[in-house]
Amino acid sequence: MTPHVLDRLGDWNPQLFRELKGRLKLRNVVITVSISLLGQFLLLLFFFSEMPLETDYSNWQRLLQEWWQNLFITSCCINICILLVAGSYMLISDLSQEERRATLDFIRLSPRSEVNILTGKLLGVPILLYLAAVLTVPLQLWAGLSAAIPLAKIFIFWVIVIVSCLFFYSAALLCSLVSGRLGGFLPWLGGGAVFLFLMLMLSWVKNWTPVSDPSVWLRLFSPFESIFYLFSGSQRYSSRWFNLHWYYLPIGASALSFLGFTLFNYGLWVYWIGQSLKRCFRNPNNTILNKGQSYVLVACLEVVILGFALQELTNTNWYDIKINLILLLILNSVVLLGLIALLSPQRQALQDWARYKKLQTRHNTSVQDWVWGEKSPAVVAMAINLAIAITPILLWIILQSFEQLNKTKIFFDLAFFASWILIYATMVQLMLMMKTPKREVWAAGAVGSLICLPPIILGVLGIFPNENPTMWLFSTLPWVGLEYGVTTTTVFIALIGEAIVLILLN
After folding, report:
1. For residues 481 and 355, which has the higher predicted lDDT (pLDDT)?
2. Helix pair 151-178, 137-146: axis angle to 10 deg
3. Which of 17-21, 277-281, 358-362, 431-435 has the lowest mean pLDDT?
4. 298 within a domain of the structure (yes/no)
5. Of 231, 258, 280, which residue sits at a domain end?
């Protein structure tokens, strides 16, 4: 690069200039280029050994086109794994090293904005991976065009890969900022988590899992789905995604609508990760989100995932609705449990809040502090988030035309779900007030034990829901007991019992 270009780059983004200067050494570039070209050569050798040898010309042409397509898809899958897994590992490792060397504190003191600094990290840290990926472009174009894949579809796929890198890399930066205490283990944990997620999504692709439920939302974060949607020659696979609807809109009907919704999904969550990064970068002791942001975040989540439960206007099948409801509750449970951790202030912040709360005289100020204040306990905020999460599900169930008995069961399911989430939130807040070290670990362990132990204990004792459903109402899986004909009185007693526990904890 010329000195003039380097000066302009340094003026625009000093952090990017610092990363490029440290990584684009001649030795590193030569090794990267060599590994990329050698890998492509070995891939070609492997596929040449599998080249079809057919005497019939027409059949040979068809098999050759499939051969090129398989080469293209394999190259794309390898690129995705390397970019996402290795890139996430590198970003987490880089920030962890900066934290250990105390250079991250100097970066935080920079007058540059958080966006400018973190953009430099995103573009600079994985620069050698970007170089290796760019070197595979000629092979992918050659294989894709030889397989009669339209150039527009190849470009659509590349756009999805770029945006997926932005999502996973932003999540990696956030993970590193909020979990720095794990030290050298964190990069392996982060990279391993991305790898396991990609392998899980790939297994769903191979098992022909249907795309008619809210789990589709998770699968849209995997570029593997885009590969097989855009390039798969299997009508069995493609037809599933072509029938994908969101609020009855056929988003899978064309490549452009699929691209648009995929970019919308990535962009929405990149935005929220970016908001969290802005809050945590300068002050790691901040909660990742404030309470107001959490309300909007939960509303966004409900709008997105509920749309995948509304696939067909005429679908009143109780089994399908039940599966969709279970998946909605599971996704909401994961997000709400995460919000408990994100919104719960630390012990010192709670003590400061309690101390200055006594000086407040106006009732309205006190209420606003519980709802919006960053240092107040998170229980009220979690109750509001629960209301935001449950309300659209309730409306969806009310508008369905199945039996009233089934609707009543669902209402009870939602009531148990809400009570348990509030109990978890209260327990976490109480445990964060303890004077013991590693309070976060104790809180996570307590909630995990409360979730897992009751069903395990009931199973070990031989108390099964088909024989004694009442006991299961007091576990973390009350909907299992509801399936076996418990009386309404028993259900109300269980709910009152959980309400008493919640009151005592508060």
Report:
1. 481
2. 140
3. 358-362
4. no
5. 280
Domain extent at residue 323: 313-505
Task: Return the SS3 of 246.
Answer: strand
Considering the domain architecture, whether residues 62 and 197 belong to the same structural domain is answered as yes
Tell me, yes or no, whether 305 lies in a domain: no
pLDDT digit string (tens) for 302-316? Answer: 999 998 888 665 556
The amino acid at 127: I
212 and 327 share a domain? Answer: no
Say how far apart CA 388 and CA 376 lie, in whole Å. Answer: 20
pLDDT range class, residue 54, cuts 50, 70, 90 = low
Collapsed DSSP state (helix, strand, coil) of residue 249: strand
Asked whether 505 and 430 are in contact (CB, 8 A), the reply is yes
DSSP 344: P
Q: Same domain, yes or no, for 242 and 331?
A: no
CA angle 109, 115, 118 (to 5 degrees): 75
What is the token pair recorded at 105? 């504190």
Query: Is 435 within 8 Å of 348 (Cβ atoms)?
Result: no
Q: Which residue has the higher pLDDT, 441 or 9?
A: 441
Place 470 in a pLDDT band, splitting at 50, 70 and 90: confident
Q: How many domains does the chain have?
A: 2
Instruction: Give CA–CA dist 87/318, Å, rounded.
Output: 43
Q: What pairs with residue 246 in β-bridges?
A: 249
Cβ-count burial of 446 within 10 angstroms (0-12 exposed, 13-18 middle, 19+ buried)? middle
- The three-point CA angle 253-254-260 to 5° equals 110
From 265, 280, 295, the end of a domain falls on: 280
> Is 225 inside a domain boundary?
yes
What residues are paired with 249 via a beta bridge?
246
User: What's the pTM value of the predicted model, to 2 decimals?
Assistant: 0.89
Q: 255 and 335 share a domain?
A: no
Is the model's pLDDT at 357 over the cut of 90? no
**DSSP assignment, residue 181?**
G
